[in-house]
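#lab-general

N.A. 3:47 PM
ok so I finally got the sequence cleaned up, no stray characters, all 518 residues accounted for. can someone with queue access submit it? mine expired

B.Y. 3:52 PM
send it over

N.A. 3:53 PM
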Amino acid sequence: MSWKKQVDEIYERRKLALAQGGEESIKKHHERGKLTIRERIAKITDEGSLREQGRGAGGVERNPDGSIAEFTPANYVVGMAKINGRPAIVGGEDFTLKGGSPNSAGLRKSVYAEDMALKYRVPLVRMLEGGGGSVAGSSGKGLSHQGSPVYERHRFKSIADVMGIVPVASAALGPVAGFPAARLVASHFSVMVEGIAQVLIGGPQIVKRALGEDLTKEELGGTEVHLKSGVVDNAAKSEEDAFDQIKQFLSYLPTNVWERAPHIDIGDDRNRADEKLLDIIPTDRRKPFAMRKVIKHIVDQDTFFEMGRYFGPGQIVGLARLNGHAVGIFANDCRYYAGSMTADGAQKVRRFLDLCNNFHLPVISLVDEPGFMIGSESEKAGTIRAGTAAVAATVQSIVPWASVMVRKAYGVAAAAHFGPGNYLLCWPSVESGALPLEGGVAVAFGRQIDAAEDPDAMRTQLEAEFAARQSPFPRAESFSVHELIDPRETRPMLCDWLDWVQPALDTQKGPYRPTIRP
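B.Y. 4:20 PM
back already:
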């Protein structure tokens, strides 16, 4: 006796699984400018590294003689692979089958993806395109059972747990709704393809039926909507661009919380002192400047990877390298509300600081903070609660912090820029205090200004007097900063500091457990 017949069926199932939704469905998918799930996995992983799990999973109908009449593969592909030589779990919906809405085997494989990442302690990459559940059920033949068994573990448990253990990155590569949309945001980094992807809680027909709103997918949840909502971090020009961004994001992070981020020396001189830093801050305190140019002149060349640029745009967050070491960068963009912290900006900062603490990345803050955003809209948004949560995330940080005071630091929001035991450097362009100068003068001298013959002239005079007193030299004289520095010294001094803190980072391996926040 031989098992050849059974073995032949194994290979037949594998071959049929590769057909996915069939030639016609794949053709239509390609005509929309999209790759199939296996083509996507091949693009993002090292060649030949995928070890797919559950290739034979699916539904089978047999002929009277027991041979396979029809095989419907699981419409979720998942497996172990390598990305830039490092292990990862990769998976995603097969849109050519049921539009990615999970069939029974596909749902089980999708749930298993997080379990694999937790079990093997490696990053998880999701490539999402498809809807959630269907009123027709997941079997394709109607529901044979109603609901999950009472003893089943909650499927969101592993989705939540995995973010505390390994890096998670997800890409929206087409319409993503329901359960896949929840998976998309349950990530440390998310990206969607412009004009191709939409992220939706409910699609146009559901929205129209329930609320009477007649909107397209793009109007409901396109890139323009979700870059500003904070649902996704970045947009991509193409699928390949999305994959490149995920690869770059993962390159700054360790494999899991028990490891350190890789050191990658690109050969940039640690003592580089760019002359442009000397005059990058205007001497006229009312003129804006480009903080991203400051970042560019300080970090290793072409290594700054920004996240969430259009959500809370007054704050800048991203990953970079300094002398090959991975770091988190937190700064202000004075071109948006003078860099003040809105509720959205505070949420972005809190989430980013949790990422840095979870994966042991030192934080470098470039400070130009005028305070929390004021006004009626800011009050309606609950800015003080979101902002205080961001401050709490700062003071609960366990990673090393370096703060470089670049221009201004005012109010409670400034506290979000100075972590426990931070290394504090100061540029000669700095001003700081309890309130921004203009607002502080208006509060403290309101009656005097109103009583003056020329209120505007009195206000201008007082503001000029107090501006002259805000020199950073008294701070240095009082040892309120570690060093008052030439801006051109910033990179060399931060590179030295990173060398000093390396032993401390070795003691912080393991999960990060902050307490409750406001």
